[in-house]
Amino acid sequence: QVQLVESGGGLVQAGGSLRLSCAASGRTFIDYAVGWFRQVPGKEREFVAGISWTGSATYYADSVKGRFVISTDNVRDTVFLQMDSLKPEDTAVYYCASRWRSDYGTYDYWGQGTQVTVSS
Q: How far apart are CA 16 and CA 58, in angstroms?
């Protein structure tokens, strides 16, 4: 069982930045694809950004391209989501998720989420 813990959420004004972190308890993300998702109450959870299990490729939703960057540290024990030029519509609970050695299909492990609120 992989436990994921997100951190770094908070309240920020429009145009500001936040950096979210996702850590896997007791292990690294080596051989795991990691994705960031977000959800607003009453709406479906949506994909935001992802990094392939090899770490060689990244993917972004059109709504965040050019503003958000997903990355990992050198030892791949933390995955970051740098969010710049934030907009009120980015307000949501952000979740990280991972799956082992696959860049397709459902994610197997999920964190509890961290709230991001962007004020106008």
A: 23
Q: What is the pLDDT of residues 62-97, one digit of tens each?
A: 999 999 999 998 888 899 999 999 999 999 999 999
- Name the pLDDT band for 107 (thresholds 50, 70, 90): very high
d(CA 45, CA 34): 16
